[in-house]
Amino acid sequence: MMLRVSEIFASIQGETSYVGLPFAFVRLTGCNLRCRYCDTTYAYDDGEEFPLGEVVSRVAFFQIPRVTVTGGEPLLQEETPALVSALLDLGHTVLVETNGTVALSRLDPRAVKIMDVKCPGSGEAEKTDWENFARLSPRDEVKFVVSSEEDYRFAREVIRKYGKAHPFTALLSPAFGLLPPEKLAGWMVGDALDARFQLQLHKLVWGPDRRGV
User: Fold this and answer.
1) pLDDT band at residue 32, thresholds of 50, 70 and 90?
2) Distance CA 53, CA 160 (A)
3) Which tens digits make up the pLDDT trace of 63-105?
4) Cα 56 to Cα 85: distance, rounded to the nearest angstrom
5) What would the DSSP string read from start to end of the chain?
6) How far apart are the C-alpha atoms of 12 and 205, rounded to whole Å?
7) Distance CA 70, CA 53 (A)
8) What is the pTM of this model?
9) Are 115 and 101 in contact, with CB atoms under 8 Å apart?
């Protein structure tokens, strides 16, 4: 059972409600989207084949109890759910970062799903699988990268439409270099939006272009 891996590293979690905690990261190769502001374009094709057991061993080396499986889009690889289950079986807390276009039903229910819903400014908003909201649990999180006021209005309506029937933690991030953070924060406060404002902490610590963090 093989996985194509872009990188495996340890860092501080830069986003989600787990922000600031040490995590091991497994970034898998491949993505079905081409968002205008993508900051991990190297994960589209760059990577190396590893057996599933080798990936688990490399994660265990860090001795960190929390793991993020990300991409690209990790759920494009058939073996990803097995990797997630193997890490969970070892006692890890496992976050799976997905772009919301692939069905979440194959994921181990013990995993924490972090679903990135694409706003219009991404150029990929029409590809979201809206049925994924019914596959979320209250401990899962939905992220929106906001690059304009149009994006913000889109995110606000999605939160209001889906949040009552399927409760989740909503996360809003300003697109790095495209939207001043104070604008997004102001809109959220003005609307008393039931969502968490976040910045990409790893970019503030290590800079916007450094890999492996």
Assistant:
1) confident
2) 42
3) 999 999 999 899 999 999 999 999 999 999 999 999 999 999 9
4) 11
5) -EEEEEEEEEEE--SSTTTTSEEEEEEES--S---TT-S-GGGTT--EEEEHHHHHHHHHHT--SEEEEESS-GGGSTTHHHHHHHHHHTT-EEEEEE-SSS-STTS-TTSEEEEEPPPGGGT-GGG--GGGGGG--TT-EEEEEE-SHHHHHHHHHHHHHHTTTS--EEEEEEPTTTS-HHHHHHHHHHHT-SSEE---HHHHHH-TT-S--
6) 9
7) 18
8) 0.93
9) no
State residue 169's pLDDT score. 95
**Using only C-alpha atoms, what is the Rg of the chain?**
16
Contact predicate 8/56, CB 8 Å: no
**Type of residue at 194:** D
Contacts of 70 (CB under 8 A, 6+ apart): 25, 26, 27, 28, 96, 97
